[in-house]
Amino acid sequence: MSGNTCSYRHITTDLVIGACAAMAVTETAVTIPGAAVGDNVVANCRTALTAGCAVAGCRVSAANTVQLGVLNLTAAPIDPADTFDFDWTVIRATGNAS
Q1: CA-wise closest residue to 93 among 39, 45, 54, 56
Q2: What's the whole-model pTM score?
Q3: Fewer Cβ close by (within 10 Å): the C or N end of the chain?
């Protein structure tokens, strides 16, 4: 029996989140060196996001590029003016589980 092996990459970045329309998700591109399409990404904001905003998910859209989805939960547009510190963990599974 063999299984997957995983590699992890961790990086911290400053990020300015783009304006979010009411009740919509806005994606913001982040450069994460070494990220590849198919990798799993975990994003953690070190501080509270602007009231009404929530992280909706993230994905690797191209080599070295992660898209962070931010959801505006309110009925009005939000333009977060702050810079946020994010921790990113990129997880890559290799091998075949059998």
Answers
A1: 39
A2: 0.85
A3: N
